[in-house]
Amino acid sequence: MKICPAGHRFIKDLRCALFVILPIVMGCSNPVAHIPLISPEQLIANPTKQIPYEQTYRMVPYDLISVRFTYHPEQDPKAPVAVRPDGQISLDGVGTLQAAGRTPEDLAKDIAAKSSKRLRDPDVVVTVSQYAPRKIYVGGQVKQPGIVQFQGEISPVQAIFERGGFTPEAQMDSVILIRNGGGPEPIIGRLNVDQALENGTPEKISLLTNDVLYVPMSGIGRADLWVKQHLNDIMPSGLFSAGGFAAGIR
Question: CA 37, CA 188: separation in Å to the nearest integer?
């Protein structure tokens, strides 16, 4: 099977074009390189001394908590206490207390202080028996973009695998985290989750409700997409038609 001179010239020109274009498309192999890496310190995390989660967790509405009076078990609520939508709880003999936004330990001290008027040296232990459902959004180059519901803690890698994992085109070392930090502008930064996957490096950042994770497309993936989208633009029309490239083969 022979190719006509016109076909040879086109193939040569196509190779030259791709040789010039692909490095340009792939030159910015990381499309989000301008976004700085985010550190745990920016998210009020402690990367060195890990405090048990029960001591740092701040309760939210719809959490269920257990209240135990160590030396006065008759004062224990018969069932878990729900944090109301307004963030408060009500206890017999104690009254109404703010629970949302506080740690269980902090709430326990408040309950003990209010109970000391009628109990001698009350010791109170508060634990979260059931966490309220939370949700985050994972988008970009994951197999099933969408919402992830979770309770307690969840890491970026866990959230991504909840949505089916990465696509082959994902830029795994530059996952974007967008978080409402309470200020006028959201916190935006890059996470290198590839370190956790390839090196087993523990993740130091936990996600919070309403966080957004976005996985960008890698440079190689963008180059492949570009070729697929623009191949027809750089090829003569009718090249693969019956009267085009095929006609030059004899």
Answer: 9
Task: Find tokens 């109404």 and name the residue.
Answer: 96
Domain chopping of the chain, boundaries? 5-27+224-248, 61-130, 134-217
State the architecture of 61-130 in CATH terms: 2-Layer Sandwich (3.30)
Give the architecture (CATH level 2) of 134-217: Roll (3.10)
Burial of 131 (0-12, 13-18, 19+ CB in 10 A): middle
Please give the pLDDT value at position 224: 59
- Give dist(CA 136, CA 145) in Å, integer: 11
Integer angstrom CA distances of residue 157 from 90, 91, 131, 188, 225: 38, 39, 21, 17, 25
Please, what is the end-to-end C-alpha distance for the chain in angstroms? 6
Rg (CA), the chain: 29
Query: Mean pLDDT, to the nearest integer, of 45-68?
Result: 71
Q: Is the pLDDT of residue 97 over 90?
A: yes
Closest by alpha carbon to 213, among 128, 161, 165, 156?
156
pLDDT digits (tens, 9 = 90+) for 175-224: 999 987 666 788 888 999 988 888 778 888 888 888 899 999 887 555 55
Report the distance separating Cα 209 and Cα 62, nearest Å.
14
CA-to-CA distance for 217 and 213, rounded, in angstroms? 13
Q: Residue 244 has what pLDDT? A: 42
Torsion over CA: 38, 39, 45, 50 (sign): positive
